[in-house]
Amino acid sequence: xxxxxxxxxxxxxISAHLPPxxxxxxxxxxxxxxxxxxxxxxxxxxxxxxxxxxEWAQDDPSAxxxxxxxxxxxxxxxxxxxxxxxxxxxxxxxxxxxxxGPAAAVQVFGSSIVCHPYPDPHQPGEPRIPFAEVQIxxxxxxxxxxxxALTAVAAxxxxxxxxxxxxxxxxxxxxxxxxxxxxxxxxxxxxxxxDPTEERKSA
Length: 203
Fold this sequence. Notes:
Elements: H1 5-12, H2 20-27, E1 38-43, E2 48-52, E3 63-66, H3 71-76, E4 80-84, E5 87-91, E6 104-108, E7 110-115, E8 131-137, E9 140-145, H4 147-182, H5 196-202
Parallel strand pairs: 1-3
Antiparallel strand pairs: 1-2, 4-7, 5-6, 7-8, 8-9
């Protein structure tokens, strides 16, 4: 199961952009390092655990002085990630009055590369290799995506974009033109005024 949406949002607030070295690695232009990066976690009993730190990772999980009895849980929590910005859309919410309420910007389709190198007993099906996450809105997201699944998501979005541009938009333009040609704006009747004389008679 994916982490809570708030955790994803908090993580995204750390950095809005990839560092240059990571961006170069991910787009294939980086020359790479002669030695792989490493993270190191040291426990207070002297135990030392090291692991590969990907060039694209935006955070180094290295730590010192970890309690020895907490080391297994700390290792399970090691997460390598790289976040990619989505888009901000102006929306209305039923919770704030719908179209009559205030507009708010909502981040949609943010995405990440994620890797959890140590197995979590509570998430036995989670892959141990890098995968993608797509956060559709702050409350809905997809996780565990492999390259083929990510391609399928992209194809769906391309289909929707094509529908907006080549189906919905032309029909909206035609609907507006037809409306302008045939619709006559209705004038609301003026409110009826009460006759003071009748009011006195009834009194």
